[in-house]
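Schema walk-through. Below, the input block comes first and the output block second. Nothing else is stored per chain. Lengths vary across the set, and this one has 156 residues.
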Amino acid sequence: MTLLFEVVSVVWIYRNGGFLTPGQAATVMLVGSTATTLLIYLLVLSPERIDRRISAPDMQRVARPVDQEEEKGQILSYLQEDWGLSNAETEVTLFAVKGFSNKEISELRGSSIATVKKQLSSVYRKSGMENRFQLIAYVNDEAITAGLSASRSAGE
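--- output ---
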């Protein structure tokens, strides 16, 4: 996910010649390799407008998606049992959640793209998710929630 945000930053700077400043907003369109399009609405808030109910440690935890990788792995271990995923399905899910394409996953696992697609379809069916974006959003949300809970527990 971090790479995605870095790419968005580079594309935005390249096309528009600078950064957004507080109060500015823009829509960025990302076109995926599988003919999927994702629109991201960016709004830059000034520090005064950031919700003060979120503590500084919580803000740091949410602002560093790289730190969520451990939580994602733990969550997927739990979901493997809860959803009844095979080891292969769990591994494919982890790669998908980390942002790898089906082709990249197939190369990393030494399997065909068709096998990866079949495994992801099985994951969607078992999890009740309709697509990759729902799966990624669900796991990321669980990782953020777990991270916030852990940081709050550590602070008590």
